Backbone:
């Protein structure tokens, strides 16, 4: 069980996370944030393994990953 | 559920001003994580240089000094000589370290100054708007090499790690890259090792981190990553160039 | 004691334990002295690879809260100007010594006062001042080093002590007033690591927000105004009834003092104003004397640099003349006396 969330207001839409995700579940959303960037998002949350590679590559510390049992 | 990630304490919670796809943010985070993990937060002093990363002074949650262009190693030396038990790091770009500041850099290395230099090489001047850096590749187009860098006019790119790998006072030299998670994990290990060299009093340590400047390369962040893989890394091979166990390339 | 040694010993007496420098004639003896002497008192002498590095090593040591200095001469001081501007902008204390030599360019190693403009009008880029002290005896050098460090601490800015090869080589008896312990003021702003003070410290001279930069500039301006009001130093000699007021600093002021005596023997009422702080310059003293004296004669080893400050002080109330020797030459007493006689009969301004 894993969950990935994006701090949308800090996302600059660089897409580096999309290359890092082994499951290829990160895509760019159609909506834009206050800075005018298309933000990263996850479409199929269930497929997330919580590997955290997206966190490692994100230059702006936008991504948070949680792992373990659901509370 | 448990968060597997947290913002390092040694990094202030301020949004980076860097452009989309710029890897300074990654390097900042790695340095801050290493400072946290080594438990040296309270005695670390950082020196930011001139260029885009001048604002590093603002982002790191440790005492920071903003240096004149190229002078960070001398300033770090000045602090270290007064306070030898403190941990000093400089954070410098390619223009700052390898062009205007190469004298300060080389002499600091030769003195075996117990400081750590984080060197971000993205082959181009960012802050001033995309001019040629000493590390710009042959043929690479920049604002001041509109027809591509030529050896005849501009000379050859400087390979910084190779340049100081043979220097006696130097304890540790490694070139890493920030273009994918695997290399970023290696980069963090290198940064940690570099700080450890300082903590153990062995000598000067340098980590050169290859990075992309999509804005000034005129590429998208993803194209810039590809450019790094195809053009940059072949010219700037990754690996350990010097360590106390012995030199040599061991990628 | 020799002047150059007095610079070193004065610094040690002031509690300075760190020196970073680069050899250049006629300053090298300061480094020779401190290279031996600093380790004896537990200090550090370090030779840098250039004056560029020297001033930034000084910058670093100042960030770490040390009493620190460097010394150089004209060409080396030119190289340090960037650092000096950054020290001023970052509001860091330190002391620089300039043993001036003939110039421009490589010039020569003869005594000179040609760096007056560079020292007192800024030197580096941006809106700032450096306190500039001009001793004229070995005893004064010795005592002035302490004053220089104290002022740099009090106002958090670089202080320069300016002399020339003659002052450096001059040997005079001195009285050493050894204070038991030098009190170095606390430095809550220093970047010494967060474990050692309450807040996170940042030493910085970058202010991208224009309003913030202006605020810093204004704070510096107020500091400079305060220094002008409180710290201006000047020696006055035989000025009460003087018709011609000589104005001279450093080496030349010693010669001019003898000229005043000689002139008075010959019935010419001469006096001497000796600025001890070149910045802040004693404009007020010049203004006051301008009411009683017929004219001023600025005597310098340059083309007329301090001359301009004398003119500012005189405010057109009395003519200001200039007499200078250049290129490392020293004005002779008899020539100054001749010039003094000439200007005492002249009217109107000019050099």
Residues:
């Amino acid at each position: 069980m894993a969950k990935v969330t994006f701090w949308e207001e800090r996302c600059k839409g660089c897409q580096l996370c999309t290359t890092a995700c082994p499951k290829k579940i990160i895509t760019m959303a159609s909506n834009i944030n206050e800075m005018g960037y298309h933000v990263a998002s996850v479409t199929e949350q269930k497929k997330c393994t919580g590997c955290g590679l997206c966190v490692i590559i994100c230059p702006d510390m936008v991504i948070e990953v949680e792992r373990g049992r659901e509370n | 559920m448990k968060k597997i990630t947290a913002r390092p304490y040694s990094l202030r919670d301020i949004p980076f001003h860097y452009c989309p796809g710029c890897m300074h943010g990654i390097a900042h985070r790695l340095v801050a994580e290493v400072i946290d993990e080594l438990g040296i937060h309270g005695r670390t002093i950082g020196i930011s240089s001139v260029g885009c990363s001048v604002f590093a002074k603002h982002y790191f949650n440790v005492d920071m000094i903003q240096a004149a262009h190229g002078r960070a190693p001398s300033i770090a030396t000045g602090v270290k000589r007064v306070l030898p038990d403190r941990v000093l790091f400089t954070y410098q770009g390619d223009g700052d370290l390898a062009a205007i500041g190469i004298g300060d850099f080389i002499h600091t290395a030769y003195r075996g100054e117990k400081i750590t230099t984080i060197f971000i090489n993205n082959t181009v001047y960012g802050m001033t708007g995309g001019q040629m850096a000493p590390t710009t590749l042959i043929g690479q187009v920049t604002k001041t090499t509109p027809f591509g860098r030529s050896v005849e006019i501009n000379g050859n790119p400087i390979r910084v790690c190779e340049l100081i790998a043979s220097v006696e006072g130097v304890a540790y030299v490694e070139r890493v890259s920030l273009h994918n998670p695997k290399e970023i994990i290696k980069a963090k290990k290198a940064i940690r090792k570099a700080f450890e060299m300082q903590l153990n009093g062995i000598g000067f340590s340098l980590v050169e981190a290859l990075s992309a400047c999509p804005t000034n390369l005129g590429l998208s962040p993803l194209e810039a990553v590809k450019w790094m893989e195809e053009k940059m890394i072949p010219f700037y091979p990754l690996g350990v160039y010097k360590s106390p166990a012995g030199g040599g390339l061991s990628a | 004691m020799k002047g150059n040694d007095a610079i070193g010993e004065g610094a040690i007496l002031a509690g300075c334990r760190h020196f970073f420098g680069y050899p250049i004639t006629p300053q090298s003896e300061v480094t020779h002295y401190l290279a031996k002497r600093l380790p004896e008192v537990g200090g550090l002498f370090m030779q840098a690879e250039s004056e560029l590095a020297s001033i930034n090593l000084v910058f670093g040591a100042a960030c770490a809260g040390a009493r620190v200095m460097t010394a150089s001469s004209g060409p080396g001081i030119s190289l340090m100007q960037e650092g000096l501007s950054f020290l001023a902008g970052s509001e860091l204390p330190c002391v620089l010594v300039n043993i001036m030599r003939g110039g421009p360019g490589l010039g020569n190693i003869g005594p000179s006062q040609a760096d007056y403009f560079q020292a007192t009008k800024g030197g580096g880029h941006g809106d700032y001042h450096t306190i500039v002290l001009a001793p004229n005896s070995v005893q004064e050098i010795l005592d002035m080093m302490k004053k220089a460090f104290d002022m740099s601490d009090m106002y958090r800015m670089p202080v320069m002590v300016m002399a020339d090869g003659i002052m450096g080589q001059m040997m005079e008896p001195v009285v050493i007033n050894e204070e038991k312990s030098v009190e170095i003021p606390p430095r809550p702003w220093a970047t010494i690591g967060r474990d050692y003070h309450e807040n996170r410290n940042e030493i910085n001279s970058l202010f991208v927000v224009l309003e913030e930069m202006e605020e810093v500039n204004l704070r510096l301006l107020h500091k400079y105004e305060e220094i002008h009001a409180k710290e201006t130093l000047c020696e006055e000699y035989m000025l009460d009834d003087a018709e011609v007021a000589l104005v001279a600093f450093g080496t030349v002021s010693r010669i001019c003092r003898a000229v005043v005596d000689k002139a008075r023997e010959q019935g010419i009422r001469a006096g001497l104003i000796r600025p001890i702080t070149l910045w802040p310059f004693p404009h007020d003293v010049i203004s006051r004397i301008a009411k009683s004296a017929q004219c001023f004669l600025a005597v310098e080893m340059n083309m007329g640099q301090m001359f301009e400050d004398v003119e500012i002080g005189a405010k057109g109330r009395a003519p200001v003349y200039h007499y200078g020797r250049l290129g490392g030459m020293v004005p002779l007493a008899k020539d100054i006396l001749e010039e003094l006689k000439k200007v005492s009969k002249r009217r109107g301004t000019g050099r």
Notes: Chains C and A do not touch (no CB pair under 8 Å).
